[in-house]
């Protein structure tokens, strides 16, 4: 693009321009210094005046055309010298009023022509931009009519998009542009034509998308500073800004807030490629971020008056005020739906201390926030519901999240961008929300969203937004804006604010339950330790009793019969009887000591559990008593289809051996023993030994027709070395049922007994299901 260079400037040796010629050799569009081009558009002129001395330090090269004064005649002069004292007073009033109202321009009259002047400060320089009124008059807009229309649009619009179309149409009516678009950015600053009003003969651009490279970062920064930007004619010749050559401090002038600022050559070429001749853009800003723009295009040169621009800017202000209101209204409706669902979940969660165990399959856990599935890691279990990756993939993802989400939370709708392994998970996990529930226990919750394949209508190939020209010398924008469709994969629907908030709320409540469960588990552990300690103390007391009584009795007998043998005259029969009694007493001592060691070993056993067939184990145990069964003509009834149990195999065998042995041993005289073994799966009985928390139990009952016992002793018989019927049977030391109880303690179950003397007994063992 040629730069305006009048003859007197070329010949003048005491002034120079500040044109930034590096723009021509750019290798990266993002680095273009568009705020300091050093030149302006030609439909007005510019002066830079020192803010204290009111001395002209900058001027555009076209001042003679508008004022009759050459740049050489102006630079270095006082403002009052070149213009009138009245004009200088106007400028001084601006300097003295830092809260100058930009909506009210300074109107200077030069050579009987009125100029709209938008002054602003750039460092210590007052930048004055003079534009003659295009229609030759200072026509004020009908603000009442415009405001009335805006209120009507507000009342009639059901949603933001409908309001957008109304604003686009009204802006086109006010300004006269051929096409007016509401342009909305996504989070990556790719733009979409959200609403449009156009001439009937023009092709629609509604729904077309433009890549973020079309409006680079530094351009977006300027749109945040200066909400209104106009190009009256893309074919303008840039006018250089001049300063005195001897003034080395004035290397450039920041024109961020300038209306006349010259436009990037790349952007001018871009507009020409689109066939656009004039533009007006109005920034739409939300929370300090560029939400979008009102973009006006004209297909011939168009320069609209200052107050018409302000009327269009008012449309932008009004629309901006409604963006948040409308978006919040949409969010409120979504939040209301989510909260109704969440309320039921939270009530269920607070009512059930094992909510994760019992409710992990509840679809509301993920459908409430419009997720496709959920995974909750708690303890050693991974609970899932809905559409989720396989368990191994979830665990790998959780390991990655633990490292890359140090705050314990993470959300994305494009998981693959941060986690490449997600390329195989998109069917279920293109997007996720992650919350850590407990770092110590590696507990977490992850919501999953599947891939949402969608087609994007780009206005031209987005990968060719800015390219090097054919000679590789300079950047050039794309020339084609024909519809270019792209299929986007590995991306889920974006998580909304209400959805993220609901997930955080639910995660917080799950976290509370995890902590409460951990506290209860610790309490339960301490309670069990207390029970174990009490049992150990009881066993120690029994051992003390044995030492004090049971062991003393056979020792005393040994002493008595030994004395009878060694002292006094005894017959051979008495001598033999004494030796036999000594032998029996010693054998009993041996039995007691062996039983004590066996019981102690049972308490400290660290054997591993395994799944066994109870049917097979019971049959093998019964086979060991074949001789005794035949000798007593006993009958043992064993049911079929008994379940498998996860137990310590050797201890389970001991348990069944003792119970069958007792049924055969304690039989009534002249009555054939009968033992009926039965199985049921029952709920927890009222009395639960060891504080077991199981809800159901595998219950095996052993009912015999033996001698029975007084039902008062149903607890006593399970204590070590407690014998109800003391006989001369030296092999019965009262250890069998105590071992049975210890075995059931080791399996978090329990054993009970019920009986009646002379009518048999029923022993029941309960294994947690």
TrEMBL record:
PROSITE patterns: HIS_KIN, PHYTOCHROME_2. GO terms for molecular function: phosphorelay sensor kinase activity; photoreceptor activity. Its EC number is 2.7.13.3. It catalyses: ATP + protein L-histidine = ADP + protein N-phospho-L-histidine. It is an enzyme of class 2 (transferase). Keywords: Chromophore, Kinase, Phosphoprotein, Photoreceptor protein, Receptor, Sensory transduction, Transferase. Pfam families: GAF, HATPase_c, PAS_2, PHY. Residues 159-301 form the Phytochrome chromophore attachment site domain. SUPFAM superfamilies: ATPase domain of HSP90 chaperone/DNA topoisomerase II/histidine kinase, GAF domain-like, Homodimeric domain of signal transducing histidine kinase, PYP-like sensor domain (PAS domain). GO terms for biological process: detection of visible light; regulation of DNA-templated transcription. Gene3D superfamilies: 1.10.287.130, 3.30.450.270, 3.30.450.40, Histidine kinase-like ATPase, C-terminal domain (3.30.565.10), PAS domain (3.30.450.20). Residues 546-769 form the Histidine kinase domain. In the N-terminal section; belongs to the phytochrome family. This is histidine kinase. It comes from Filimonas zeae. The lineage of its organism: Bacteria, Pseudomonadati, Bacteroidota, Chitinophagia, Chitinophagales.
């Amino acid at each position: 693009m040629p730069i305006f260079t009048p003859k007197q400037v070329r010949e003048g040796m005491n002034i120079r321009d500040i044109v930034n010629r590096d723009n021509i050799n750019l290798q990266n569009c993002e680095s273009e210094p568009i705020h300091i081009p050093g030149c302006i558009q030609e439909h007005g002129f510019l002066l830079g005046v020192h803010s204290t001395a009111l001395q002209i330090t900058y001027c555009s090269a076209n001042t003679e055309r508008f004022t009759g004064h050459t740049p050489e005649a102006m630079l270095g002069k006082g403002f009052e010298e070149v213009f009138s004292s009245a004009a200088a007073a106007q400028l001084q009033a601006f300097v003295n009023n830092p809260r100058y109202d930009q909506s009210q321009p300074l109107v200077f009259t030069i050579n009987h022509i009125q100029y709209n002047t938008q002054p602003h400060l750039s460092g210590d320089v007052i930048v004055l931009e003079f534009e003659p009124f295009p229609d030759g008059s200072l026509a004020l807009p009908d603000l009442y009519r415009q405001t009335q229309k805006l209120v009507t649009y507000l009342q009639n619009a059901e949603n933001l998009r409908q309001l957008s179309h109304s604003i686009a149409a009204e802006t086109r009516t006010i300004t006269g542009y051929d096409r007016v678009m509401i342009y909305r950015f996504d989070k990556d600053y790719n733009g979409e034509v959200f609403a449009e009003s156009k001439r009937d003969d023009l092709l629609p651009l509604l729904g077309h998308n433009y890549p973020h490279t079309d409006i680079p970062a530094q351009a977006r920064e300027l749109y945040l500073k200066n909400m209104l930007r106009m190009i009256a004619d893309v074919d303008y010749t840039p006018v250089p800004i001049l300063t005195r050559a001897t003034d080395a401090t004035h290397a450039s002038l920041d024109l961020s807030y300038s209306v006349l600022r010259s436009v990037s050559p790349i952007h001018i070429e871009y507009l020409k490629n689109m066939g656009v001749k004039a533009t007006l853009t109005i920034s739409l800003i939300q929370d300090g971020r560029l939400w979008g723009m009102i973009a006006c295009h004209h297909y011939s040169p168009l320069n609209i008056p200052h107050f018409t621009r302000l009327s269009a800017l008012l449309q932008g202000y009004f629309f901006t005020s409604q963006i948040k209101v409308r978006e919040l209204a949409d969010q409120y409706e979504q939040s209301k739906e989510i909260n109704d669902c969440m309320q039921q979940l939270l009530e269920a969660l607070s009512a059930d201390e094992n909510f994760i165990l019992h409710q992990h399959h509840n679809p509301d856990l993920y459908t409430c926030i419009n997720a496709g599935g959920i995974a909750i890691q708690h303890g050693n279990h991974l609970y899932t519901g809905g559409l989720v990756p396989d368990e191994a993939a979830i665990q790998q993802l959780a390991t990655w999240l633990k490292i890359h989400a140090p705050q314990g939370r993470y959300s994305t709708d494009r998981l693959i961008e941060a986690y490449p392994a997600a390329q195989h998970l998109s069917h279920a996990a293109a997007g996720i929300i992650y919350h850590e529930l407990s770092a110590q226990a590696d507990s977490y919750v992850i919501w999953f969203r599947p891939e949402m394949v969608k087609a994007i209508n780009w206005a031209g190939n987005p990968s060719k937004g800015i390219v090097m020209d054919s000679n590789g010398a300079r950047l050039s924008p794309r020339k084609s804006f024909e519809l270019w469709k792209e299929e986007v994969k590995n991306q889920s629907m974006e998580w909304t604010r209400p959805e993220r908030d609901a997930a955080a709320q639910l995660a917080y409540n799950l976290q509370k339950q995890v902590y409460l469960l951990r506290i209860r588990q610790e309490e339960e552990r301490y309670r069990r330790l207390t029970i174990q300690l009490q049992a150990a103390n009881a066993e120690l007391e029994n051992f003390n009793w044995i030492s004090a009584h049971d062991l003393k009795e056979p020792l005393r007998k040994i002493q008595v019969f030994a004395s009878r043998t060694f002292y006094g005259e005894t017959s051979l029969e008495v001598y033999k009887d004494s030796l036999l009694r000594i032998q029996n007493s010693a054998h009993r001592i041996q039995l007691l000591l062996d039983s004590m060691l066996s019981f102690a070993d049972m308490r400290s056993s660290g054997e591993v559990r395994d799944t066994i067939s109870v049917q097979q184990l019971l049959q093998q145990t019964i086979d060991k008593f074949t001789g005794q069964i035949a000798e007593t003509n006993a009958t043992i009834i064993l049911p079929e289809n008994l379940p498998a149990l996860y137990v310590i195999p050797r201890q389970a065998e001991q348990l069944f051996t003792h119970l069958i042995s007792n049924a055969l041993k304690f039989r009534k005289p002249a009555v054939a023993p009968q033992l009926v073994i039965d199985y049921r799966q029952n709920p927890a009985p009222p009395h639960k030994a060891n504080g077991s928390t199981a809800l159901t139990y595998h219950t095996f009952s052993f009912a015999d027709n033996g001698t029975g016992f007084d039902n008062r002793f149903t607890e006593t018989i399970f204590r070590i070395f407690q014998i109800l019927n003391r006989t001369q049977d030296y092999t019965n030391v009262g250890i069998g049922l105590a071992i049975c109880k210890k075995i059931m303690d080791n399996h978090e179950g329990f054993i009970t007994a019920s009986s009646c003397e002379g009518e048999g007994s029923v022993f029941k063992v309960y294994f947690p299901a």
